[in-house]
Amino acid sequence: MKKILSTALAASLLSTGLVACSSDSNEASDTIKVGSTDSSQKAWQVWEDKAKEAGINLEVVNFADYSTPNQALSQHQIDANQFQHLKFLAEYNANTGEHLVPVGSSEVVPLALFWKDHDSLDGIEGENIAIPNDPTNQARALHVLAAADLITLKNKDQLSPTPADVDTKASKVTLTPVDAAQTPAAYGDGQPAIINNNFLDRAGIDAKTAIFKDDPASPEAEPYINVLVTTEDRADDPQLQQLVEIWHSPEVQEARKQDTKGTAYPIQRSQEDLQEILDKLEQDAKQQ
C-alpha cells in the first residue's frame, strides 16, 4: 500500500508542480501553504486577505482530487490542508499509517434527503431511497435516515454502518446504493435521494428544498466536522492556530455563507476535542 501511495504521490505532485518545493524550502519561506480542493470559492480569497492583514503570508494551493492533499501534507510539500472532515482524515491515517492531526475546526455541511415536488416526509413510507455507495457518505446517509425514523439500524451506536446493518423488517423504506454523482439523477426521476452538497449546484437543486437533514450540532455529526489539518510536529504552530481564528472572522464567514448558500454550519471545537474524536474514528476504521 505504501509503495502504491508513494508512486501515486510522485505522479500527482509532479502534475501540480509541487515536487520542486522541498521541505527545506518550506521551512525557509515565510509563506504558509494550505491545500484545498475548492480554492476558487470566495472565502479562500477573503481568508488570504485577512491573513495578510494579520501578518501571515497565506498561499492556498488547489488540488483536483481528494487523495493528493493529504499525501502532499505527509511529504511536507504543504504546511496544512483544509478540505476534509474528521472521518475522512481518520480513514486516511488508518489506511496509510500516517498521523496527520487537526489544528482546529471550520464547519459541518449537513447531509440531506431530497424528494422532487415534496416538502416533507409525508407519504415516503414504502419508497425506495437512493443513497451514495461510497463508504463514508453511505454510512452518514444511513445515520440520516435513521434519525428521520425511516430505517432501523441493528446497532445504532455503530459509526460506519452499511446496508447490511439495516433491520429491513423494522424499516419503513428500502434502499438503493448508487454512485454519489448519480443521486441527483435518481431525484430527477422522482426517487427520494440523499445528495451530497457539492452535487446540488451542478444539478440545479436548491439546498433549502431538503425534506430532512442531519443536525450539524448533534453528537452524530461530530465525525463530519471539517478541519484544518497538519503534521504532528506542527500541531501547536501559532500561525496555523491563528489561521483557524481568522477563518471564523465575520468577513470570511460571510463569504463562506455566500459560497455555500447558507448550508455550512460554523463549528468551533477545541483541538483536544477534535483529536479525541479523531482517535475514536481511527480505532473504528482499523477494526473495519
UniProtKB/TrEMBL annotation:
State the annotated membrane topology for this chain.
Lipid-anchor
PROSITE patterns according to UniProt: PROKAR_LIPOPROTEIN
Keywords of the record, alphabetical order, are: Lipoprotein, Membrane, Palmitate, Signal
Q: Which residue positions does the secretion signal occupy?
A: 1-20
Query: Looking at the record's lineage, which domain of life comes first?
Result: Bacteria
Q: Which Gene3D superfamilies match?
A: Periplasmic binding protein-like II (3.40.190.10)
Q: Which InterPro entries match?
A: Lipoprotein_NlpA (IPR004872)
Query: What cellular component terms from Gene Ontology apply here?
Result: membrane
Coarsely, its chief localization is membrane
Cited Pfam families: Lipoprotein_9 (PF03180)
* Keyword set includes Lipoprotein: yes
- Identify its protein family: Belongs to the NlpA lipoprotein family.
The name this protein goes by in its record:
D-methionine-binding lipoprotein MetQ
